[in-house]
Amino acid sequence: MSFTTANKKSNEYTEEHILYVGTHTGSFKRLDISQENPFREHQIEKVEKLEKNNGITSLSWSNPKEKSEILVGREDGVVKVFDFVKLQHSWKLEGKVMGLGKFDGKIIAAVDNGDVHLLSENAAKPVETLQLSGDNISRLRQCLDDPNLIATGGKERKNNLKVIDLTAKKVVFTTKNLPNDELDLEVPVWDTDFAFLTPNVLGTCSRHGYVRVYDSKQQRRPVFNYKNDKEQISYVSMAAHGDLIFVGANLGVVRAFDRRSMKHAVHTYKGFVGSVTSLALDTKGKYLVAGCLDRYVRVFDVESPSALFQCYVKSKVTQVLLQDIKGEAMDGTEEAIKLKERNRIENDPEYEALFNNMQTVEEENNEEEAIPTKTKRKNQEAAQVKSKKKKGKAV
Fold first, then answer.
1. Any idea what DSSP says for residue 63?
2. CA separation (Å) from 24 to 188, 293, 303?
3. Degrees (nearest 5) of the Cα angle 53, 159, 129?
């Protein structure tokens, strides 16, 4: 599919995917790509209740393998748990939520001041707070293969990447910076996002334009480091599957690296206008979804740089999730039927009427097409009468 600003879906893209999208306005919406109209948005929360500081800063599964609940974190410190489309629980914390997870029946929530809170469904306030991460967290990620492990990190050296054991409640691994540069100055550190490749191997990206791989069993310094000093680039989002690491940049590009070499990008995905704020993959690592500040969500075939799907969602995208119905439950089975039923959203007549009456981008760019048919006929008839009068005067 060639690059365009219109909503597009490739004929080759036939997967039953559902996209969950969080935006800077706080709207939380859902796109079912397998439906007849794959660009139709379903609002999971009422947009009328949103305020200025309700932007979504974190979106994750409570259990990435089962994908039964969605955890939502906001700029104002609110944490919510959704059973796909229904709100189950919520909490209010102090600070911006920078990452969420779930372990031992408790919700893990990291806020930007460095605190990692443990939340219980039976308590309105955190049941425990861990202060092990520094004072400026940019992101928290949980290990898929070992949920007991979480990674945190952020701006400046004192907030470097750390791995925390939730059972022991202690830091089990902390990174060490590269040696000083040729001027004997410390190499700047600002880790913005992470990905567990294995319980011992992590990838990290940075505002300072580096992508690094750490192995906690080998050494504290990175075992692989990619950085192109000729580029003025910042990496702000990351996802990983197998040996591939995907990073989204502020210059409107997504790159894929093989974590075993990290010498250069093996794939480059383009078509963005603005910073790529969030990345997610399907269960098999075959499809990549990317959210961008240009208000589009796009789905790519990992092996091909071309976009298979592109949808304008009206607000700047901050977080995305991808759910693969076929990949997570065989189609036709009882599990698949239950999964589809839990994802079903009843139509909201007021919301549908609101968006049906809104002008689209195409209508704004083509005022003639936006004129109602009756008005257009009247204008044509008036023009014909005027033309006849002019001809009569000329005779």
1. S
2. 28, 9, 30
3. 65
What is d(CA 252, CA 233) in angstroms, rounded to the nearest whole number?
Answer: 10
CA–CA separation, 32 vs 379, rounded Å?
Answer: 41
Q: How far apart are CA 316 and CA 291, in angstroms?
A: 8
DSSP per position, 179-236:
PP-TTSPPPP-BEEEEEESSSSEEEEEETTSEEEEEETTT-SS-SEEEE-TT----EE
CA distance 14 to 336: 17
Question: Alpha helix locations (H) across the chain?
Answer: 325-328, 334-343, 349-356, 361-365, 367-370, 373-394
In the three-class reduction of DSSP (H, G, I as helix; E, B as strand; rest coil), residue 311 is classed as strand
- The whole-number mean pLDDT for each consecutive block of 10 residues of the chain, a chain of 395 residues, reads 76 93 95 93 88 94 86 96 89 96 95 94 92 88 96 90 95 93 90 96 95 96 93 94 96 95 93 95 94 97 90 96 74 51 53 52 40 52 60 49
What is the spatial distance between Cα 107 and Cα 93, in angstroms, rounded to a whole number?
13
For the full predicted model, state whether its pTM sits above 0.85. Answer: no
Question: What's the pLDDT score for residue 337?
Answer: 53
CA–CA separation, 316 and 325 (whole Å): 26
In whole angstroms, give the CA distance from residue 75 to residue 55.
5
Are the C-beta atoms of 203 and 215 separated by less than 8 Å? no
Q: Provide the pLDDT for residue 84.
A: 77
Residues facing 43 on adjacent strands: 29
CA distances from 365 to 176, 361, 379 (A): 53, 6, 20
State how far the Cα of 50 lies from the Cα of 23, in Å rounded to an integer: 11
DSSP letters, 10-49, are -TT----EEEEEEETT--EEEEETTSSSTT-EEESS-GGG
Residues 340, 318, 205, 94: what is their CA dihedral angle, to the nearest 10 degrees? Answer: -100
- Tell me which amino acid residue 190 is: W
Predicted local distance difference test score (pLDDT) of residue 285: 93
**Phi, psi angle pair for 203, to nearest 5°:** -110, 150
